[in-house]
User: Which sequence fits this backbone?
């Protein structure tokens, strides 16, 4: 059994981790922290976990964490980098669902996240946990940077095109739409039901924190070539789901059939990437509450613009599910263990 | 392995059955019908089932059904009663998620459902499948009448009060609220997104088909005593969930603590009924996509009116999940086998 | 022109007042306060008011209020009672959309609202502003207590039955459902989009602040007779709207036709109460963004339980619209002036 | 008074026309048709119009239409082209909210709409009714082609850039998102509440009927130069609203301030186009139930990609409201008459 601890169990990524881990056949849940609710029963905060989780929230200093094999951080940015060192010293591996270890350029990280980095040496060591790209490095990771939700959806969609070298890397456009749970479980006016429902908007067009992460990872795919990226996130009145609509200019003449084949062959061995048949449009609900990414590729009017549609559940493949997928790889388990949920529909 | 067939796999109860059964460790899925889509791949209609179900929809006459141990009917009312005889003759047990075998009084059934009954003898034989009341009879059932969604939520809420004989049976009120999936997957104007969203209404106040079913089953609990029931269903702009708010006049002096104890002890052995601590209010999302019923009991202002709050997922405990629970009982499996889903939240 | 000021213009009732008043032909808008946003342009907070309102939020002490004919309080409970005295002294009439002047029994008010009352003498003077009941007293009011949203919907529904003396006043049930805007524009976890959407729940079954208000006003209708009331509020995943489902036991034999006539004749002269034809069910969206209350009366199975369905928009007839209706009466204007909005549908 | 008739009063554009016209001070409503509901009271179909509209639906042949000054068609495509001739012969002007007169190239129209055109000569005569571009021609129009919802939002957003000649016309991208009412009031499975809610998807990426309309009108702005356009529509789980996110490559060096000025000066005289201050993001709800278009322009990371955000209410500025705006122009009324609705928020 893998002994697992969770830092930050009171947010949406945290409760989703709990939902998955209590059904994971190779996991023993040891302890869960909550910044504000030490002592409270986890199931008193989340009635969905009644009869499932008997633990009470503990403080970060709890001894139980030293006996863990791995600790997940579902905390705000800036926490994992301060706690990881003592956990690693105790032999505990770390999977951070926040952004502390995602950006390799420390100055860039500090600019976007507005704080000094507390553990630069761990940034250098950390492995970026997108299994479909970095599976081998993930196996041996001590510090795992779990990708952001937008980056996961955008990366998987652009990947086959970039690897094939058939698009203009200087003018990529990612028009992305997210459900509201992506904003976290925080009491903020902008996330109130009455502010969000029956409305739609773009936000952070001037610059979103996932922009440098996406640009960095896209660039690594093409050997460090600089990427020209326009990234516009939008807020959708739905709880879960990300839909990335990706646009690129083709630099090679490739017909629709070959495009489709390119995507299907790139992901043919992947458990959690499903390329839809030509002409289809994935809905976010088709992956709701599951770890799947579904992708479709189009070439409208047979023009030189390729359009990729990529959907994930932001809390699963975009957070907790991918984190468990990474844990499975790190501990030599079947990659899909505990992640065989059928999406909930309707 | 239990060999299972499904009649009516293209509706919401049907796809929910599929979601549950493909993960059920003791089930082998044999065949699925769809009235309109014979030949279509099931996963082409429901992308959530891609990589999960390889079957194509077949016609009702398909030979595969004869080799089944049990067939579920997730069809409109009036289908199961015409198909059950030949299946039973072939040794196949039948679980009907529609209403064909729920009402024992044939004249009453024909009045509410507007057609002549095709198999009166099966009505007499059928077992009403609310496990928390009729578990023993369910074990041997050949024909299982799976309860309606409203009746399940209302029955479980009134049950302890009726069995204890402490309320006035002449003036029960069930103010019930349902998500929209309860209306089924039918192309009707009244169920359009733009007609439902951001609105709330009562419907069928003059008479709803679940009224006679609830009245019949409540009456059986009190030995056939006639029940005075007012049942008002409402439509909530949400996909899944039923919330029953139940009102009854206390005829005995019982304090809040004793009321709470009464509910907790009545359901103490039940896997799928969870009585909340005193003072709590169950949300429908606390049971979303799971087979759980959560109940709270209140006595406002210490008056003589008791208020019970009862929530289920109409597609699970109110339909497909309860049907699988019944199948487990009928075939001697652990009652919760394949039904250990943690509710999805948020 | 009526010179109007608003205290508390940054909440939902406040912005709804602004939406109505900027189109009101007899109103001149003088000043608007916001507790947190003094100096901010009103239209910077509410883009819907761009090109409609040129004012900036001011502090409560602003001189402009002394020149007003009337000031609306769309503030939290406890504000109007401290500000009303100096405004009245300056000859300004006061309409409070909060609860400061609604409950005549001071001890009762202090128990439910958890604070000492700052202006008991104004409670004695205040007029309860439900025009369909107290129109004459409203004309001369200096201090107007605008009714709560639930009380408005519940009162209008029970009114004809109580006045006719044909129901048992000891066992009234009001099962009420509200949209989320009723909780106000406050950054609270429980009102987040992801907490509310696709779910339904009851709340405050043990006791809601509108309970004593409803009981008081129902009692006044029947000459002070004590009322036995069970009031259960619920939260609906929609922005606007209240649906009250009311249950009472008939004490007289009255047939459906006579019940319908009773309701129609009671409200025949009312601009803002619309009795639907027999057998209909009002939807909350049928009154969305308008000052209308729509009511239907049913007698299921011709039994002795009468069911009344009453819907309003909680922000209009349940708050800002009714406040403007009261202002019109107080200043001798046509009661519907500025309130002729057609409900928005879909 | 302008005597007005409506063909197709039972759809969403029809009921929105009614909502606007019953408050229009210069309009007399003469007659309304419904294909399926001749004889039914309009307010029996739409309770929002109780006490507002006394008419019953009539057949298209009704004599009342001959006495109209103008008839609106809120019918499916293909109806206006068959009815317009006899109305024009009777001296009645025609405003078509459908697509019959929008596309000048008949072959193109017939390809996209799948039928032969019944009145080619009227296509040649018709004026495309986007007032911000064609105001002068609209004044004298006998046949007015009211723009589609997507084309309105996309056109207004690209307009200043195209007129200024500072973008590459060969690679325009319009990523557009629409509320569900855009699909009309039709009983189709895909528009059911349970199919749409809590999900998001693109559709018709291969080709949407608004594609040729947008391309034609964009091209007219630049003197007939061919436009390279990629148009991807998406469905948002909300009732009303369109959000167009537009991408273009700058061909001139223009800083953010100059871009902002360009947009502000282009629309400075327009009542129904509101350019937001730099850095803002318009929400669709900021125009809900109003005829306003709100626009923001961004240049992320000071790169060569300009991003325009443009929002409208698809049923108002995208349909009924713009139609009334055109009627006002055609009949010499103030352009905003009857269209001064403040958007409803929350």
Assistant:
């Amino acid at each position: 059994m893998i002994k697992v601890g969770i830092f930050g169990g009171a947010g949406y990524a945290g409760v989703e981790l709990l939902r998955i881990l209590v059904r994971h056949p190779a996991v023993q849940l040891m302890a869960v922290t909550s910044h504000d609710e030490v002592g409270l029963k986890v199931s008193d905060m989340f009635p969905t976990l009644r009869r499932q989780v008997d633990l009470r929230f503990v403080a970060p200093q709890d001894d139980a964490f030293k006996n863990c094999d791995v600790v997940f951080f579902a905390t705000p940015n800036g926490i994992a980098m301060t706690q990881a060192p003592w956990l690693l010293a105790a032999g505990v591996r770390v999977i951070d669902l926040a952004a502390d270890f995602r950006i390799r350029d420390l100055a860039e990280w500090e600019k976007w996240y507005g704080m000094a980095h507390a553990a630069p040496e761990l940034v250098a060591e950390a492995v970026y946990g997108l299994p479909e790209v970095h599976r081998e490095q993930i196996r041996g990771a001590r510090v795992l940077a779990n990708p952001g939700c937008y980056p996961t959806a955008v990366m998987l969609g652009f990947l086959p095109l970039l690897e094939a070298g058939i698009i203009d890397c200087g003018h990529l456009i990612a028009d992305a739409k997210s459900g509201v749970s992506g904003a976290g479980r925080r009491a903020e006016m902008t996330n109130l039901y009455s502010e969000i429902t029956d409305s739609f908007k773009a936000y952070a067009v001037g610059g979103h924190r996932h922009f440098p992460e996406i640009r960095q990872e896209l660039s690594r795919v093409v050997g460090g070539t600089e990427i020209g990226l326009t990234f516009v996130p939008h807020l959708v009145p739905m709880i879960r789901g990300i839909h990335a609509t990706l646009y690129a200019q083709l630099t090679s003449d490739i017909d629709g059939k070959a495009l489709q084949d390119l995507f299907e062959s790139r992901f043919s061995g992947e458990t959690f990437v499903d390329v839809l048949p030509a002409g289809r449009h994935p809905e976010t609900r088709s992956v709701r509450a599951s770890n799947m990414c579904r992708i479709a590729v189009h070439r409208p009017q047979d023009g030189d613009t390729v359009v990729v549609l990529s959907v994930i559940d932001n809390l699963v493949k975009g957070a907790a599910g991918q984190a468990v997928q990474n844990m499975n790889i790190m501990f030599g388990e079947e990659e899909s263990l505990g992640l065989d949920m059928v999406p909930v529909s309707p």
